[in-house]
Every structure is written in C-alpha cells, then in structure tokens.
C-alpha cells in the first residue's frame, strides 16, 4: 500500500496512525499542499477529488480518510479500532464525525485560503475563525467523554485517531487546551504510544 | 424511534430517506434551526453536540447523520444501503464523505451566520461561498460516477442518500446543475421514489 500524505494534513495523519496501530506495511508518498500539488496531475489522476489523503492498494485508489479507516478496519481486523457492539460502534463514529465533518473541513487549508483571498480576511480573523470551530466542537466533545484512558475505553479507537490530529492543530493555533482536561489527557496518553509518535507531523520524511 | 429534525436540514433529510427506504417506524420531532432551538435545552439535553439530527432509540440518543445511517444499516440490514463487498463499500463511503465532510459542513447555516456576522460578508459573498464548495465537490463527484441508474448500481445506497439533499441545496442556491448531468439524472430518479418524496423538505410537517 502507498499512502499519499502531507506531514501537516490532519486527515493523512489519521490514516498514518491507523496503519501504524495495525502494523500494516506501507510506503508514504508526499504531496505538498502548500504547493497545491493535490490539485494537479499526477495526483489528481490517482484521486480526482484533489484532496489528501488517498491510499493506493492492489484494488485501486481510495480517497477520504474515514473511508480508508473503515476499509482498513474491515480488511485488517487485528488490533480493532471499532467496538464490535453496534451501539458502541455508533457512539465512536459519532465522535469521529463530530471532528471529521464538523470541525476539520471548516478549518481546512483551502477554506482558510478562500477566507484570506476572496473574503480578504485578516490573519487575526482567520485565526479566530480557526479557533472558533475547534472550541465549539471540543466543548461538546469534552462533555461527552467518560473517565477512560482513551476516548472510548482502555484502548485507542478511531475516535482517538480523529482526536489527536485535531488537538495538534488546536495547539498550533494556540487554542487554550486547559479548558479541555479530558481531551488533553487522552492526547498525552496517545502520544506516548509509538504508533502515534511515528505518525506525528514532525516525524514525517516530508516535514519542513 | 424518534428523529429530531428540521425540514431544511440536509443532514436530517439524509436520515429521513434512510428510515423510509428501510420502512422503519418512527416519529419526527421538529427542532427549529432558524430559532437556534438546536443550541438550547431541551434539545441539548438529548444531543450535547447541539446539531441536527439526532435519533432517539431504546438504547439512547445518537448524534451525527452518518453515524445514524451506519447504525441503521447494521441493525436493520433489510434493504441494504451499502454493498457487502469491502472495496465497493469503501467507494460508497468515500462518495458520502466527499459530501458530508467536504461540502455540507462548510455551507452549514452556522458557518453562513459566522460569515455574515463576524466577517460581515454580504449576501452576494455568502451565496458565492455556498456555490463555490458545491461546485468544487460536484465537479469531482460527477467525474467519478459511472453509467448506473443510481450512484453505485441499480439501487439507492448511502451515496444517493447523501447526494439528494446536497442537490436540493444546490438548486436552492441556484447552482447551474446542467454542468452535472449524471448527478442531475440520479437526483431525478431518486425523487421518483416514494421514500425520497416523503423525506423531501417541502413534505415535512414543519415545512414553512
């Protein structure tokens, strides 16, 4: 398998964590978002959506990080990242989508570019926007978390895989994480695991 | 089951279609987005995320439309809405997320409110924004569609369930749908089915 990735893409970061947790052999192919390489050939020949990440497999190319995570879970069930119980699984997915749909896409680089371009937003307005959607999302997620070591129990799940890259972004944009002690504790715990460490942006071959 | 819904919420619209396609008995409880009822009690007692939809079941309340759709699919496998083959399933999910993560949340009412409030965007700027993210998304999705009656084959799937509400929004905001003949044909075909007709915004008890 080959993962098309960019060191600071949080959607790619999610897949890197899952590949590591499941010990799936893979190679990384860097696509530079700052140079808009994801919107040009040869990458768009692989993924017409023009977004990162994409996973190249023997069956073809799969786009969208959550679709990749679900597919990895189905085809590589060792080290499960979803509970087997349907209702518990639904709660984990709900947590994931609250990040992957309702925080991250609104703060995506292409949206920030639109804000500063077409809408002439200042850097300060852009940073406030960025923090606003994280704060909205984290406030409600913090309230739903129990007293477990990870988001849902004593092992990392897809919820933690979605949470950690979003916290990384929050710290980068100076969100006050002391407001979210449970999220912060889970973040620290995940980042003590080798699979998360190896997937971190600063440890990628294309890190700048 | 009780679905918390608003007639024009596209995420709620998705779940309404699925409940109808699967013939699952349910009641609807209207939550008025224009009055921000989703951000206040009693609704936030049910769904702390403060977003629509949420599904109340005998096991508890489930938030996030995609999590609800996946849970309905697992617990009510009649009239399947996902292929059984893992790779095909992954393609359907990828299509869904391209809408549910990369179009819809950026055009959500709360984002539009932020644009006109904090960023003082004009109505024209807001409408251009709205259309921009649909056009970006639909252009690549149109290119991935084959020559099937529905998005993936001869029966509706979760892909069609995500697509139809997004086309409804596109038409409302006057996106030139003639650019997307395959999407338009699928939209028309879905809207000839009773399950889609009954789920349409204009046919909801809370329609204004």
From TrEMBL, chains A, B:
Key words of the record: Isomerase
What CDD domains does this protein map onto? GST_C_Zeta, GST_N_Zeta
Which SUPFAM superfamilies does the UniProt record give?
GST C-terminal domain-like, Thioredoxin-like
Q: Which GO terms describe its molecular function?
A: glutathione transferase activity; maleylacetoacetate isomerase activity
- Per UniProt, residues of the GST N-terminal domain are 1-80
> What InterPro entries is this protein classified in?
Glutathione-S-Trfase_C-like, Glutathione-S-Trfase_C_sf, Glutathione_S-Trfase, Glutathione_S-Trfase_N, GST_C, GST_Zeta, GST_Zeta_C, GST_Zeta_N
One GO cellular component this record assigns the protein to is:
cytoplasm
UniProt domain GST C-terminal: residue ranges: 85-208
Its BP terms in the Gene Ontology are:
glutathione metabolic process; L-phenylalanine catabolic process
Where along the sequence do coiled-coil regions lie?
Answer: none
Give the PANTHER family listed for this entry: GLUTATHIONE S-TRANSFERASE YFCF (PTHR42673:SF21), MALEYLACETOACETATE ISOMERASE (PTHR42673)
- Similarity comment text for this entry: Belongs to the GST superfamily. Zeta family.
* Alphabetical list of NCBIfam families matching this protein: maiA (TIGR01262)
Q: Under what name is this protein listed?
A: Maleylacetoacetate isomerase
Species of origin reads Pseudoalteromonas citrea
Gene of origin? maiA
């Amino acid at each position: 398998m080959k993962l098309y990735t960019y060191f600071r893409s949080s959607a790619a970061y999610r897949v890197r964590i899952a590949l590591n947790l499941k010990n799936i052999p893979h190679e990384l192919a860097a696509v530079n978002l700052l140079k808009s390489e994801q919107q040009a050939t040869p990458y768009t020949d692989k993924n017409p959506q023009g977004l990162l990440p994409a996973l190249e497999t023997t069956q073809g190319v799969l786009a969208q990080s959550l679709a990749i995570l679900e597919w990895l879970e189905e085809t590589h069930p060792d080290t499960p990242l979803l509970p087997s119980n349907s209702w518990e699984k639904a709660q984990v997915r709900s947590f994931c989508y609250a990040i992957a749909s309702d925080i991250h896409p609104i703060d995506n680089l292409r949206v920030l570019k639109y804000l500063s371009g077409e809408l002439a937003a200042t850097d300060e307005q852009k940073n406030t926007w960025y923090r606003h959607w994280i704060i909205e999302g984290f406030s409600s997620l913090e309230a739903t978390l129990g007293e477990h070591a990870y988001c849902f129990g004593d092992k990392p799940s897809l919820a933690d895989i979605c949470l950690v890259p979003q916290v990384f972004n929050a710290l980068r944009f100076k969100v006050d994480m002391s407001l979210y002690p449970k999220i912060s504790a889970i973040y620290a715990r995940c980042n003590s695991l080798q699979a998360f460490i190896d997937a971190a942006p600063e440890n990628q071959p294309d890190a700048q």
